């Protein structure tokens, strides 16, 4: 058993996408950083098939990876740019097409495997002390520092601990930060599908009363499926054999890409909304899913986490410039103010979409069809929607510039 005790500016618990990228960002900003992770991630291998966990990374959050020197490692290995998004309602002819040319961008985003981003970040942790495999057993928060006691016998002393270990964050629990939220009574079925026709680098999403069906383009011509369905339908889909599932999916997608010829490994996970009532307390901060989990309908979960990284890094840099340590609440509150309002707005929007499109109320059905039609016919509205989706802003923290 190790008995070492070390002092750092920041200790990050959780080495997934958000935690690992945050560790790179802070170490590149000359903070001393410790990273605690239960299991070292497997090296990414392009010979392996696509992982089930993928994200649609928008141009704004992608800049975070680019400014940290991580994007080249992602782009040269395996990712797929998409240049348009088509959204349509199953109950009408209303449809909306958003394309990159509307805002002068070469693409609207990239479909990337989560494991590839994690691998790229871990290879860049050269100036970070990694405690792995190790898990947090307890926290002791004092006036001038926080002590992390790990299950391998190590003790870490830091000015700040960041919980970036997901929705069931032990750091959040240890700090006594409460959450609000609810389960949606839905599950999302994911996996790689082979359609009859090429995706043409477009993300396709059809809204139905039981939940949307989305196809995200992959580099090899296949699509990553995200089929959000009420629990009863999801359970029914899970019982279907391969051919029956593909036939059902072809029907649900209205054959937009022709017949679904093949469905590789599939899995389903429950959907929920969760939001921490605070993003920071003395010597404690939360980032990524430890702070917020939203319905994946809009594909914004990882993007919000990367924006957390940019804002938290900026807040800690500002604190240091004012001769404050990384755990200073004045600058942690700056991070909370910057991110909480934006995250709540996005969570509210996706929750509203879920409820509007999950309702069989005739009035709501009529309103949503009209909304798609209005947005489709008015270019300024389409541009506003695209700007929001791609996560670009004229101002913002250094890592987003």
UniProtKB/TrEMBL annotation:
InterPro entries reported for this sequence: FAD-bd, FAD/NAD-bd_sf, UbiH/COQ6, UbiH/COQ6_monooxygenase
Alphabetized UniProt keyword annotations: FAD, Flavoprotein, Monooxygenase, Oxidoreductase, Ubiquinone
Cofactor: FAD
Domain of life: Bacteria
Pfam families given in the database record: FAD_binding_3 (PF01494)
Residue span, FAD-binding domain: 8-339
Oxidoreductase listed as a keyword: yes
Keyword Protein biosynthesis: no
Pathway: Cofactor biosynthesis; ubiquinone biosynthesis
UniProt similarity note: Belongs to the UbiH/COQ6 family.
NCBIfam families: Ubi-OHases
Name of protein: UbiH/UbiF/VisC/COQ6 family Ubiquinone biosynthesis hydroxylase
Origin species: Salinisphaera dokdonensis CL-ES53
